[in-house]
Amino acid sequence: MQMQEVDLAIIGAGPAGMAAAISAWESGMEDIMLLERAEYPGGLLHQCIHNGFGLHYFEEDLTGPEYAERFIDRLASSNIKLCLNTMVTNFHPDRSMIAINPQWGEFKVVPKSVVLAMGCREKTRFAIGIPGSRPAGIFTAGLAQKLVNVDGYMPGKEIVVLGSGDIGMIMARRLTLEGAEVKAVVEIMPRVGGLIRNEVQCLHDFDIPLLLQHTITEIYGDYRVEGVKIVQVDGQGNPVRETERRIDCDCLLLSVGLIPENELSLEAGIELDENIGGPVVDEFLQTSLDGVFAAGNVVQVWDLVDNVTLDGEKTGRNAARYVGGELKREPKEIEVIPGDNIATVTPHKIVGTESAELALRVRETIERAEVRVGDFRKKFRVVSPTEVIKIMLEPEYLNLFRKKGEIKVSCCQRGKEDKEEGHD
Ligand SMILES: Cc1cc2nc3c(=O)[nH]c(=O)nc-3n(C[C@H](O)[C@H](O)[C@H](O)COP(=O)(O)OP(=O)(O)OC[C@H]3O[C@@H](n4cnc5c(N)ncnc54)[C@H](O)[C@@H]3O)c2cc1C
Questions:
Q1: What is the pLDDT of residue 416?
Q2: Which CATH class, in words, describes the domain spanning 124-254?
Q3: How far apart are alpha carbons 359 and 345 in whole angstroms?
Q4: SS3 of 390, please?
Q5: pLDDT tens-digit profile of 112-159?
Q6: 118 CB less than 6 Å from ligand 1?
Q7: CB of 228 sitting under 6 A from ligand 1
Q8: Can you give the pLDDT at residue 131?
């Protein structure tokens, strides 16, 4: 088997992997291999032909392919080895990996450092257990997005979307624009799962019915979907039987969540966060395996691709520092503990020798909110589970927690006194 030794191997050439490769290159690393199983770099971006990408990073409103192109151009002007049609099939605790492509067949890569940037995958019908028959016409929203935007096929004419994640809402609008009738977007929660801007621009602006606190309890049809049974749910999420009704449709799209893609991480014995499904990382985005970093949706499902790019850049810089012998682990790290109203927080551990940025999501929407990290407080007009909140902590402050070995993060509503003082 052919063997390649490199300074850095990156698995996945989506926005996270491309940013990692470019920043490692710009940090002086020369021997970088970017392995991508698809025939194009860019990850999911090439199927996201709507706008709304890059508003923060470029301060421009770009489509997914336009956003990707900016990084593809920068890759092309470097000596980074971009291996397309290349699937990494195995990853080992000594950081070596096995990959396969049509050019070299199966080959081994032995890198000094690694960035995991495999992204995430969509939950399917079986992850949420909808009973009923198994006819044609049931798709995840992302697959339908690829069929319509890349391959030019319509998945159906009368559509019901289950789940109001961003991909589901974007596809409801897309299919409407392509002439389908979207009969409903059905969401079990009392609020949409995706960004508010997508609720407004994709559903309300196109008069697409949004049924909050509803779910689907049965799928009808033998060969092709003929309809779904929908039902209202109570405060505990239990179906209220008297409200059951049928909606006729020939296509059901599922937008019910994304799962970080970590089979390779598991194989290498990397510690995963059971709640999020991604690797446990420190503020340098280094995983439990020395010299292995992780960026983008493989760590946690981000709200905006701009954040994924920043994550990728961080891992590229840190991989270069690791190979240069500059990045050392501290014997005692500070554990980050999610407290009240915190759904997820990364990094999980902080070395604390440099500034560290926390990225967190809350469980519930709160107006006039305050995020607390130890005694540090940051005020927000409103916090919502759909948006990632970032908080930067300085090493002098982190030092105060070194002895205790942990720092707690929580989010609550601010007291009345703040309102009277006019904070917001
Ligand atoms: C179906 C879907 C649709 C989306 N649509 C939108 C949208 O409309 N708007 C929006 O803002 N965000 C959207 N997102 C979120 C968007 O994917 C992320 O913001 C961003 O693409 C994440 O970047 P990433 O690099 O972490 O992962 P990805 O973009 O998923 O890139 C991961 C890359 O890794 C490659 N890979 C994985 N495993 C291997 C392996 N073993 N070997 C080689 N290569 C591998 C994959 O082929 C892929 O190219 C969508 C996500 C999904 C899953």
A1: 52
A2: alpha beta
A3: 6
A4: strand
A5: 999 999 999 999 888 888 887 889 999 999 999 999 999 999 999 999
A6: yes
A7: no
A8: 81
